[in-house]
Amino acid sequence: MKILNIGIMAHVDAGKTTVTEGFLYHSGIKNFMGNVDNGTTTTDSMELEKQRGMTIRSATVSFMIGENKINLIDAPGHMDFIAEVERSLSVLDGVILVISAKEGVQPQTRAIFHKIQQMKIPAILFINKIDRIGVNLSEVYEQMKQQLSEHFLLMQEVKYSYGAVEQTYEILPRKHSDTEFSEQIIVQSEKLLEKYMDGEEVTQEDYEKVIRSRNRYGKLYPVYHGTALQNIGISELMEAVGKWFMPRVEGNQKLSAYVYKILFDDHNHKLIFTRVFSGALILRQRTCVKRDSQDILIRNLFGLENGRLVPKNSITAGDVAVILDAKELTCGDWIGEQIKLPVLSQTEPLLKVGVRPVPAANRRELLEALQKLAIEDSYLDLCIDEETEEIKLKLFGNLQKEILQSLLKERFQLNAEFDSVSTVKKDKPMDKVTCIVPIYSPGNLLAAGIGLTLEPLAEGSGYQYENKVSFGDLSKSFQNAVAEGVEKGIRKGIFGEVVDTKVTFMYSDYDSVNSTPADYRKLAEKIIYQALKEIGTYTMEPVMKYTLTAPQGFEKRIITELVRMDALMEETEYTQTEMIMKGKVTLEACKDFSIVLITLTEGRGIFETVFWQYRQVNASKKGRSSLNED
Description:
By secondary structure, the chain is an alpha+beta fold.
């Protein structure tokens, strides 16, 4: 039996959850297809998902396609939930990317596809909703070619017929006897091309082997068509999954498993979803968590079978395991040995928001609820301001704030007020500074002595730590405490986390009777704050790389708006119908520009951003941030 872990991903409302329902129906898991609008889908199980008709958190279901076991992960489509998307991608053997035939390639389609390319994950494209009036597949193919990849292979031909009041269509599989189709495959392989040129017979198995191989390395993307809501094209897509995707196989037999998802069920059990890459997870097995070398005992182990969790004695390589109530495990942990996964950017939230309970007496209950949500999504980075006691969260966007507010009410019956979303700003020391606090010196009530040097680095360098104190002068446990205290101080800064800074631990005092690691941890954090106050800090803001795509003819309006935002316009190119501009702009300036662009371009413009780096920016006269070119 072949085990495949696949994901279905798409722009919001392209129909990926309906495709999932089709898979579950055809595999016999359900005797009817659920409907997103009616709130009857399996993977969108939260009441909030049913109300909004969108996927908020990833869900995993299992079923059979022939002899193949499929673990299917239905991940969110909106980029405010990009953390969910990234974690899901890291454990997949393949992705089905759903494209709406009427809307074509949309911003999140592009963002997800670029993640797939970046991580070298095999993908099949499914063009959905081909029954809608006004669909022009030739335009969709051209968009795919220009905005995604030239290396896609149409596995079917769609023929439309138009009557007086309706249109009908027929989906016909393309055959290897079709010269254009076969040659498109042959040129993908030197070996096959040589065989063809020598006049030897090229078999169907030869063609399929090339498609499978090129798809595996992200060099060719098979394309299928259908209308998921009417259950058209689903069986062919399911067949394609078993045919083109291959399990990711690890050579060693030692246990290697990755925690990609954590959620709490209705009974408050912590469900830990884990992809086993090699070896086996065994019930009542004692094993090690890579993060801190801590031993854990697997007390409750479940597998996924036919849409349900089933108790298991072991879960073997290639499959998904669900561990119950292991307090030690968090998202991103490795159980056993760590292996190299496809490159994952680990996008960082660049926005923050304050939260208050309503009424104020519910503060403890609100914190407990937010702690659970932060375990499910560590990117929330729940923290409490030590001076104001304000509860703060980090976010990817405004939609995520709305969803969190609704989640608190739905799951925990709590009302909460959220502030307006603001940009996460960071500190950078203005100059090099050394701060030494000897043990028992005036004002130092801790049994510890530490000297640290802070040194600003080039923008984009991040945080670096160097230790110049030998273990002979200070033992390892104490030095670890210093590193932890420094890191905590760097995370807090004065007005925000410190970036592009090197910290050197260069001096220590020690009292063999009274000193404890806790003293060194606390003092290191205080010295970071003291050093930053002494030298002063620059305010650093997130700067984004942007790609703006719009129909020709709107240039004047768009450029006026970009100038207003003090954006750098670095590159402009034209296709037959579109203008594509690239450059950089502060996040603060462009937070709401996507909405403005829709108005400017009559709904046809696309504004995509990716984080570039934190940079020192200037405050303009109007109170905005401006980015000056180097």
